[in-house]
Design a protein that fits this description.
Blueprint lengths: L3 H6 L1 H6 L2 H17 L6 E3 H8 L9 E4 L3 H10 L3 E3 L2 E4 L4 E7 L10 E4 L5 E4 L2 H13 L9 H13 L5 H10 L3 H12 L1
Parallel strand pairs: 2-5
Antiparallel strand pairs: 1-2, 3-4, 4-5, 6-7
Amino acid sequence: MITVKEIKKTFPRLKQLPKFDRQLEFASMVTEYMSEKNIYPIIVGGLAVEIYTRNDYQTHDIDFVSDGWKQFDELLSQLHFTRAERQWYHTDLELAVEVPSNFLEGSDDLVVELELPNGKALYVISVEDMIIHRLEAIVFSTTYPKEDEDYEWAHRMFLIHQHDLDLEYLTRQAKLVKVWPYIEEWINNEQS
């Protein structure tokens, strides 16, 4: 069981960590704290991309999908984060947290439990769902989707994880949201 007081005690050490490590460590403490309340936040968005690209991508905030908005608000307020609409900021730690939704747009069954060196765990949306989300973000809103940064990150995640992907799930979901032609092209290029 982790307390607010124990989380606060880690702040001086967190400040010394590189941004990515600081985000993961802090997210793992939030996850532990929330799980004790039967709330299991899942990392989505940019930090998930950063995790899946092995710190190649850079993000500025921690996005969680989670129930328990009130509990997040209470915890982050007690940790001296400042709230601005849907985001909380801690200037001294250079951390930002957002809970954009309580609904995971993806498979609960494919959520990855990631254990950190500190012994704590994080839950991360699947790489398959992150690939699809990055493609969805650009495919209908951009004239030249393949030139968009999100296309590049989706492709990188595919290349890094291609041998571990649940291709059946990825194919089914990509067809549902009409981004399959991009993934099919990547698969065909890898088989050539």
